[in-house]
Specification:
binds ligand PBG; alpha/beta; globular; TIM Barrel; eight-stranded parallel beta barrel
Length: about 375
């Protein structure tokens, strides 16, 4: 179909629709909503523990009791879901803590499930936080650095997924990037009658340098080799669409692209190819740390840059974003909505308040 003929300048003046905040608001294509936010948390053994992670200001290692308080706050802010990571008291070659009945994430899942039943609980399913070598699967017998025995590891991952689902996880999110894990996890869950447990696969997860702060937070850096033998090669975009296709065929209910900001093209390609599949993006630890550092240095305005970054992820095609900024964003969106209801527009910051009166009907230049 031919697009309709359109006016050209001087009849056409796109700036007409940018003249006031009210007009801009009407024609906005992308709206951030608290409904799409997922808040990641790190649970550790002990009681009354809350220790800030150095490279991730505002993010904490928390014991189960403190996590429960945090979970209440998250739910009160209207954020629908938590993504849980755990640091076990000890690690071993197979990562047995990942599927132990009283493993750290399983304890946290039970406690939060009981205290805040409305929250959607997502368990990150992987071995790397639990293995002494720090890999997401089990290294093969021939000891090649970084080589992971795919099929043997699948069996261990399915144990972890079943333990998490039995402890109350609504969603299992395998982040290991081994082949065939979605199919293996789906059959293991179904065999236990866990047919309603959702699978959100980290379908296109790249071997990214932006996970640095997380590996400090989760103490999950590989002790030898790297993850390039299983996570995706950053230059590949078309391959991501193929990976998503495999995971959907294996039974994934939702898929994820990770990291987010350096991979907006991948988010867009996945959404364009599979418009009907719920798509998440992980705004990872390095993306968070970059913004935090620039804000701390006084180089960026936090609220505006974070909202712009997250809006870009939504504009690229993700309905859900996993972000360490989720609580701040929920607060910002709520205060904006309240101000709009009163007919005012919240300035992005006190600086903006002083310099740009918006929404007053005064034409902006
Ligand atoms: C575990 C896992 C990682 C992240 C989420 N799950 C680290 C990795 O693969 O090395 C990264 C999250 C972040 O950087 O915020 N496999």
């Amino acid at each position: 179909m031919q697009p309709a003929a359109r006016a050209q300048f001087p009849q056409a003046r796109p700036r007409r629709l940018r003249r006031t905040e009210a007009l801009r608001r009407m024609v906005r294509e992308t709206r951030l909503s608290v409904d799409g936010l997922i808040y990641p948390v790190f649970v550790v053994p002990g009681a009354d523990v809350q220790v800030e992670i150095q490279s991730m200001p505002g993010v904490y290692h928390q014991s189960v009791d403190r996590l429960v308080e945090d979970a209440r706050e998250v739910a009160d802010l209207g954020i629908p879901a938590l993504l849980l990571f755990g640091l076990p008291p000890s690690k071993d070659w197979e990562g047995t803590g990942a599927w132990a009945h009283d493993g750290i994430v399983q304890q946290a899942l039970r406690a939060v499930r009981r205290a805040v039943p409305s929250l959607v609980l997502i368990a990150d399913t992987c071995l790397c936080e639990y293995t002494s070598h720090g890999h997401c699967g089990i290294p093969g017998p021939d000891d090649r650095p970084g080589f992971i025995d795919n099929d043997r590891s699948l069996e261990l991952l399915t144990r972890a997924a079943v333990a998490q689902a039995e402890a109350g996880a609504d969603i299992i999110a395998p982040s290991d990037m081994l082949d065939g894990r979605v199919q293996a996890i789906r059959s293991a869950l179904d065999a236990r009658g866990l047919v309603d447990t959702v699978i959100l696969s980290y379908a296109a997860k790249y071997a990214s340098a932006f996970y640095g702060p997380f590996r400090e937070a989760a103490e999950s850096a590989p002790q030898f080799g790297d993850r390039r033998g299983y996570q995706m090669d950053p230059p590949n975009g078309r391959e991501a669409v193929r990976e998503v296709g495999y995971d959907l065929a294996e039974g994934a209910d939702m898929v994820m692209v990770k990291p987010a900001l350096p991979y907006l093209d991948v988010i867009h390609a996945v959404k364009t190819t599979y418009p009907d599949v719920p798509l998440a993006a992980y705004n990872v630890s390095g993306e968070y740390a970059m913004l935090k550092a620039a804000v701390a240095a006084g180089w960026l305005e936090e609220r505006r840059s974070v909202l712009e970054a997250l809006t870009s992820i939504a504009r690229a095609g993700a309905e859900m974003t996993i972000t360490y900024y989720a609580k701040d964003v929920a607060r910002w969106l709520t205060s904006e909505a309240a101000a709009e209801a009163e007919g005012q527009v919240v300035p992005a910051s006190s600086v903006a308040r002083a310099s740009q009166p918006v929404g007053t009907g005064v034409p902006n230049t």
